[in-house]
Amino acid sequence: MEITELVWKLFLILMPGVIATLMVNQLSSKKITSVFFFIIYSALFGIITFIIMEILYSIGIVIVTSFWGDWKNLQWGANLNIWDNIYDNSNKYNRIEIFTSYVLSIPLGLLYGYIYLKKWPNKLFKYFKWTDRYGDDDVWSFYLNSPETDWVYVRERTTNLTYFGKIRAFSDSGVKREILLADVEVYRTDDGEKLYNLKSIFLELDEFNYSIESPVSDIETKNTN
């Protein structure tokens, strides 16, 4: 097999996975930045996309066959030509299959991203007590993504100020910690005196110089107003 042919076959397999991985990155708080893992995820999502295509194609054949009642001519096995390209070194490429895989990879990528965002695999593993991990995110993403975390206190030690407000947005996991609060009340931390109100505030937090709290009583009071 020539190098160009190998590269072309890898391109056909990886491209749906690349599209799906990009969709996952758009939804995930922890981006896939490593080239190695990006290739691994692309290959995995690409194969899954073709497997789903195979299942859908096979279901369609069974439905059509059952409608026409022509069960004698029904052949069991792989139906997509892509499997021949992978395993038998076939040079026959079905353009419809390739185009369909690219289109299908977009909604599938969004589905993969939603599943990853909701931590369904980890929840399943925790249900069977196979792991105690919540996911790959750090505590910052885990805490701020929690449904219970809505109204929070952000205390900045360097400024002696405390901000109480509703979370509107926050940065991805990383070195820089940024958070956007709305309907903000600003207090002096040491004596608790209320200073002023703000419609919104953007905070860029320094490492080791802040804390975030979400008192239940304050949340309930704020939601009832």
Note down, in words, how this protein is organized.
Keywords: Membrane, Transmembrane, Transmembrane helix. With 225 residues, the protein is an alpha+beta fold. It folds into 2 domains: 124 residues, no CATH class; 86 residues, Roll (SH3 type barrels), CATH 2.30.30.100. The chain contains 7 helices and 5 strands, in the order H-H-H-H-H-H-E-E-E-E-E-H. Strands 4-3-2-1-5 form a 5-stranded antiparallel β-sheet, with helices on one face. The relative contact order is 0.11. The mean pLDDT is 79.
In short:
This protein has 225 residues and is an alpha+beta fold. It has helices at residues 3-27, 35-68, 82-87, 95-117, 120-127, 139-145, 216-224; strands at 151-156, 161-170, 177-188, 194-205, 210-213.
Rg: 25 Å
Strand count, sense and barrel status of the largest sheet are: 5 strands, antiparallel
Q: What's the shape? A: elongated
The oligomeric state is single chain
Overall pLDDT score: 79
Q: In angstroms, what separates the terminal alpha carbons? A: 70 Å
What order do the helices and strands follow? Answer: HHHHHHEEEEEH
- Unreliable sequence segments: none
Strand order of the largest sheet: 4-3-2-1-5
Helix fraction? 40-55%
How many runs of DSSP E, i.e. beta strands?
A: 5
What's the number of helices?
Answer: 7
Strand content: 15-25%
Count of spatially separate domains: 2
Secondary structure category: alpha+beta
Transmembrane segments: 6-24, 36-69, 98-117
Keywords: Membrane, Transmembrane, Transmembrane helix
